Amino acid sequence: MGKNGNFRLTRLERNWILYDVGNSAFVLMVATLIPIFFNALAESGGLTSVEYLAYWGYASSVVTIITAILSPILGTVADTRGFKKPIFMLCLFVGVAGCCAMGLATTWLPFLLIFILAKIGFSGSLVFYDSMLGDVTTPERMDVVSSQGYAWGYIGSCLPFVVCLALVLGSGAIGLSQMTALSVALLITAVWWLGTSLPLLRKYKQINYVEVEQHAIQQSFVRIGHTLKHLYEDKQVFWFLLAFFCYIDGVYTIIDMATAYGTALGLDTTGLLLALLVTQIVAFPSALIFGRLSAKYPSTTLIPVCIAAYAGIAVFAFFLTQQWQFWVLAVIVGMFQGGVQALSRSHFAKIIPPEKSGEYFGLFDICGKGASFLGTMIVSVGSQLTGSANVGVGSLIVLFIIGFVLFKMSCKE
């Protein structure tokens, strides 16, 4: 950052941020149009609204379980010199191919299975993408670069989404069925995701690594075993991961299930989509603001503020019944969504050994970005047991309270 306060990104930092722009388009589709696609297939298959919400939550939970098993293993292997980029590319291509293939499904079960495959590829790519942060920038720039990644991801993802939304809503005027329009929207998203990934794939070089050893894969298992065995000894990392597991699960559950939740309440579909578009727009300046605040206040101060705000969001969601309330919810979520994600990522990158970033971010992914296992299970089970989606979503406050307490414990170490 210069003397005048301007922060200039390097070319490699910009290329890294571009991947956030690409994968965020898929995230936005998962939060908006993909649940609507699944809902249409579920209705034609005879599922009720509560069953639709529950199966959507179960699918997200399956993704997390599989990702939780694979992420630390692949992350540890990727720490080996020359391995990170190829494994990142594999996950990226699985996600992109799955995104395209979802549009070919004609019944709800095959669609859900393809969705699980695409989400695993997406989640896997994020393990390596996040761990690249230490290779593309320096520790003192991490908070701002991470925040800008999320900020530009939010606003950049709106470009293909607006095109996809216009295509779906105006499908009748151009002679397409809505299901065909949704299939084309998935293809557009996949192309955008792949295209914005190319600059990073061309320029990225792994700087922090473990040297290639004989039996590299076997040695990777030995390394992760050693890390897990001694993880408790690093109290700051240990307590942070437990805190992150709780509060980010709640955050990603709200992101992943927002449209499904509103649909289950019977709210207008077009209104839901526009409200979530507003979330992305609000999240852009909000993430940048948190990036600037990180220059004045430590992440140990800013992250608890975001967690407390999300606890309030969970309470508000419990009483949500009207369309205008969903709009209010969308704006508030946008204000804190980027901050809590970006600062958590950069905070973790600063407290771990840089040469083991893939291994540690594999553990980081288990606790969060896989797809909110604990949170989606709370919503799904709560909704089925009570017959009320409000109770399921409102119950997420427990995760934020526990996460807040555990994060404070990590700060004391």
Characteristic key phrases:
80% helix; single chain; mainly alpha; 17 helices; 413 residues
Q: Give the SSE order as H and E letters.
A: HHHHHHHHHHHHHHHHH
Provide mean pLDDT, rounded. Answer: 85
Secondary-structure-based class equals: mainly alpha
- Helix segment count? 17
Instruction: Please bin the fraction of helical residues.
Output: over 70%
Summarize the biggest pleated sheet: none
Question: Describe it for me?
Answer:
Helix content is 80%, strand content 0%. The protein contains 17 helices and no strands. With 413 residues, the chain is mostly helical.
List the helices and strands and how they pair.
Layout: H1 11-31, H2 33-44, H3 49-78, H4 84-102, H5 108-131, H6 133-136, H7 142-169, H8 178-203, H9 216-230, H10 235-264, H11 269-293, H12 299-318, H13 323-351, H14 357-367, H15 373-386, H16 389-394, H17 397-411
What's this model, at a glance?
The chain has 413 residues and is mostly helical. It has 17 helices and no strands.
